[in-house]
Every structure is written in C-alpha cells, then in structure tokens.
Amino acid sequence: MSQKIKIAAVQTNPGLMNPEENLESVISAIKKAAEKQANLIVFPECCLSGYIFHSREEALPFAETIPGPSSEKIASLCKELKVYVILGLLEKEKDKLFNAAAFIGPDGIIGKYRKNHLPFLGVDRFVDRGDKAFEVYQTPTGNIGMQICYDIMFPESSRIMTLLGADILALPTNFPQGRGETISTYVVSTRAIENRVHVVSADRVGSERGHSFAGLSKIVNASWDPLALASPDKEEIIYGEVDLESARQKHVTVIPGQHETDQIQDRRPELYGVITEPVDGGNTG
Predict the structure, then answer these.
(1) Catalytically annotated residues
(2) pTM of the entire structure?
C-alpha cells in the first residue's frame, strides 16, 4: 500500500550572527509549510547562525546544545502542527563544536547528525569532525537519513543510509555559487538515481562576507523525477509529494523475464574492499 508524504524544502537567507531573527524566520516558514500540508520540512545548513565565521572563537557563542532553546521552541511547534523538521545549526557539547542537523518531531528530538566530511571553507574550518555513524530514523513520515552539504560528494554516505533502510535522504546545505549549481543539477539527482531513494536538498541564498550561495534547493523522487527546483536567488519554499513504497521497491521490472534490475541485490560487495582503505597523503595512484 502506498504512503504519500509531502516534503518541503525551505530556501532561506539567514543573517550571520543573528540567531533570534533567523529562528523567527524558521518558525514562520514552518507555519507556512504546515498550512500547505507538508509532513517533512527541511531547512539549510547553519540556518540559525550563518556560515562564514572567521574563527572557532567567533562561532562558539552562536552554537547551541541539542536539545536546546531553539530546538525546544521548534519541538513545541512541531507538536502543535504535527510536522517533522530538519534544520542545520552549530552544536556545542562540552568543549566540542559541530556543524549539525537536528531532526525534530511532534514528540521532541528524534535524532541529530554531525557533519562527517568537512571542506576547508567557512565555519567548517574550525568545527570538530562528526563523531557518529550515519543513522536512519524510523518515523511516521518515513525512514529518514541525514547528511550535510559536502557529505553528498561522498556516495558512500548515501549508500550506507540506503542499506540501513532510508526512504528519504535530507540534505541541509550551503552550496556556494560556482560549484553549487553543478552539484544541485547533477549530484543530488545522482544520489536519488543510484540508490532509488527520495532526496531533498535545502540550500540557502544571499551572501556573507564576500561568499555567495547557489540556492537551487531541490526535491527528487526515487523514480528519478525532479519534483521541485527553487530559484538561485530568492527565499522560497518548494514542495514535492513522494510515495514511500517506491523507495522501498528496489527491484525494477521493465519487461518481465527480459529486463529487470535491482540496485541493491545486484551489488558486488566482495569487490569493493578498497573503498574502506585509507589513502596516504591523497595519493590514489
């Protein structure tokens, strides 16, 4: 039996070091998306703090615990509106600082993810590497996996969550102009194609300290159809309805007995061992 889920990707332009106003914008967008009957609402990376910090010390005052003040406010709203929200924020835990995503539902915090792959860019130059494995959270709105921005460039991330049973991969991101357009056009869709999962990418727009962002938030379904694409420069909310069962059916029959594929069962894991081996100094030759 099919189960239809409506996904919203919220494309924002957060203010750097302006968490109160950014949180108000998040709350407003959640209400708008809920009015449109969205079940799952995804926000960009670092949407409460901004991204282009010049030092760890500059960023730390804008980090929160999970749960914390912002996530608790959002949890109350999720309970009232019966929606699920994923948003990016800076997380602090003791002396650690993470680029993180919180997954929040009507019953509170469902889970969190800490960015595992860190580019030398913005606040990622100063945060700690993620210390948790990729996880998939089972909810009434589907089995959800999370990654953040640069993680999408590593296909292993999406494949792991697919093997863990993900229906939907959520990607809060801050794709920069210049590269982000290509990533949105090709890489986001490729992760949906190669795993037969629904993928939602929520990017930001605007600029910070001379760095501009690409926008082009996107929702792609497990049948490889692009359902919605945002503009490169406007704050907006895009929507796409997906069928969870279509992400769970990996065996595809084009012509019975003549043309059938299964991108999970047809794998050859015994040939892939080199993927998990570290390389020395970036030399893969």
Answers:
(1) 45, 115, 149
(2) 0.95
